[in-house]
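Notes from hallway chat w/ T.B., transcribed later so I don't forget. T.B. wanted the structure written out for a chain they're using in a teaching module, and asked if we could keep both sequence and structure tokens in one place. Agreed to drop them here.
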Amino acid sequence: MIKTKKNIVVFGLLASLYVTPSWAEQMKPFSLPSLQGESTISSNAGKGKVMIVDFWASWCEPCKASFPAYNELLSKYAGKGLVIVGINIDNDKEKALGFLEETPANFLVAADPDKKVAAAYNLPTMPTAYIIGRDGSILYTHAGYHEGDLAGMEKEVETALNQGKETSSQNKGTLEQE
């Protein structure tokens, strides 16, 4: 009996890392320098759009697998209102830039070397990605990344893009670096 309860608790904890219900909290606002340092990337960049906010680091092996998946999602759904912001938490900017040379990102990449934004999100692991709805609510949370996760994330992105379509034309946000 105790083993069954323990299994249920463990399953519940694992499930909570994968999906956050739509009644969850709002996205934490941020304004960070781009990794290249030429501009500022703000959480307002995704206003009225669906945004994936992905926290990553150069030492994170699963991050290497997630970037091609995010590039694929962006190329498929950018025209429908998807934006992706990767937030790097490396202390050493050169390591992060080296990672991007090997694993290119077709999306905006911000630097959070002090990890203040990462701390506000209370990351469970690396990488962690949040799918943010058009209204700014956190719809889904993905802790970690494994081959095969793209299909599930794509379904969640499609669902998020279809939610609130009627209000998105009123709140058209443009993806801009400040």
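Follow-up for T.B.: Residues 51 and 83 are 5 Å apart (CA to CA). Might be a good example for the class.
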